[in-house]
Fold each of these.
Amino acid sequence: MNKQNWTYKKLGEVCTIERGGSPRPINEYITDDPNGLNWIKIGDAKEGSKYITSTKEKIKPEGLKKTRFVHKGDFILSNSMSFGKPYILEIDGCIHDGWLVIHDDNNTFDKSFLYYLLGSPNMYMEFQRLAVGGVVNNLNSEIVRNVVIPVPPLSTQSRIVSELDLLQSLIDKQKAQLKELDTLAQSIFYDMFGDPVENEKGWEVKKLKYLSSLITNGTTPKGGAEVYVDDGILFLRSQNVWRNRIEFDDIAHIDAKTNAKMYKSVLHHNDILITKTGRINTENSSLGRAALFTGQTGTANINGHVYLIRLLDGVSHIFIIQILTSQAYREYIRKVCVGGIDKRQINKEQVDDFPIILPPLSLQQSYANKIEAIEKQKSAISKSIAETEKLFEYTMDKYFG
């Protein structure tokens, strides 16, 4: 693209950037009064959304002098958790000091253009470059003000937004298709077997330990991240184990010597993984997420926050993983887990005693056949998503690189 008519300015030259503030102690300002002021927290940002539309908490109006009021249409930027991620406000409210607010006072930007710009990988790298030592734990307003950004004409911004929106819309639709297929799999399960916890159909029930040859958790090697290597044995942690899928974006590796010391938790093909610790108060609660390891035996290991479940021959791993990832089991795990408000844990004894319904094996296999057909569709869609995301990244780099 011809960028000859683009200007480049520091963000602080075209926008006003301010840090939030928090009245303290905050608990004394939280209120149930519907007339309270929206108290905007990172938990109010829904996964995958660029907008914040509501808050779970409100604060008393008298806290206003100790915080910062922000308006619908403002941008807010996380300066700690989810570092550097931008959101557009669709509500008025107040922000604490974990947020920066960006006011486009002169309407220099198409809002979606600024959103894509602020969320681009190159912007993140620029934040890192400007930070002391190149490692960012917190952003401050001065760093953000000094970031140099492109300012194309509004008509050009609009064309760029149209191109990126089209690609993002395609990605969103494809991801929605994946969710619909997951919902279909759950629907087929409930039609055939009913609720796996309530067991209203009266199937035989056995504890998971009697259906398994091994249930154990991994270990975290001494030295932690210092023992990780660039290439080697996959080392799966809780952030890699999601509901019915394993994510490889933030994957660690260990060498063969370290893996040999942790031989008890070396993964086999079709081992089931389940997260041992985490939170239970979010939509994607990190506690009790289960996924199937479909890689080759001996190519991966797990840390101390993940259990592996190795089923006996003749037990359908597809059937069991569907039970463990069901909404009913999610609620069951919430009831039996132990720990504090923010962090919970499933003990091994609790995993051993997980109640598993056992319909006839022929029914389990019939269900597994249906799921395998669904998984083939999901695999094709996932491949298409990866290709579209690659094109999206290329387009972002073309404009913001």
Amino acid sequence: MHEGAFAPGRLDWDDTRMFLAVARAGQMLGASRRLGVNQATLSRRVAALEAALGAKLLVRRTHGSELTDAGQALLETLERVETEMLAVQARLQGAGAAAAGVVRIGAPDGFGVGFLAPRLARLADRHPDLTVQLVPTPRGFSLSRREADLAVMVGRPEKGRLVARKLTDYSLGLYASPAYLAAHPAPVEPADLARHRLVGYVEDLIAAPALNYAAEFLRGWRSSVEITSAIGQVEAVGAGAGIGALHDYLTRGRGLVRVLPKLCTVRSYWLAIHENLRDVARVRAAADFLTEAVREAQADFTGR
């Protein structure tokens, strides 16, 4: 029997769920963490599914797993089934259904940790049967692979079967700590920045082109302190590490000093949801809460 041929057999639908997780994660380790099972169990269940189908579904590599033709065919079939199940779920639940179960929100650390995390108690109080998971959005983050149910992204997403809406613009400016400015005269013009210690992202790990905004403040910007986290940059600047281009809304109440206040740049946050999930009660509840929370804090994101 060739690799792509499916032989009749008795399927364990739980095994198909585990295969789907591996196919989306691209590796056993990531899938096992998402499912909460160990890799040995997961590997055994996928092997059982392959035996039931009479087809090889995955090719194990050193750094992950690749789908065979049969595996790709099964993935596409399972995603169609999932789409139908989610549509039925949304239809049966109706608009007034209570939000329950697990909802996973992906967000950049500045928004997720600095803004959303302190407000999650309100979401939990509003929907006591909802379990909220907040996760960072790394490079290559994918809603299509169900790494989250909904995600906050910098800039409008351009790929995938997504429903997206703009949450808000947000502004960034240059900041330093009073202690740093006491030891280093404040810059008077942008060119003066070249004589200061600068705090920014690790250049080769910038997750999205929209985050590469330092050059908008100074052409040829070179950071002395590089941190992949927006929250980490705020902490470093606050401790006197140098001058950093920081999200204005993350600096509230931290006692930082705005330098060269006429310099500013603007980005936007977008909320993206896979089209199959937009009418599911738990996802809809989280999306509505996010929109409401951002609207209430609008002045913090865009006002000075």
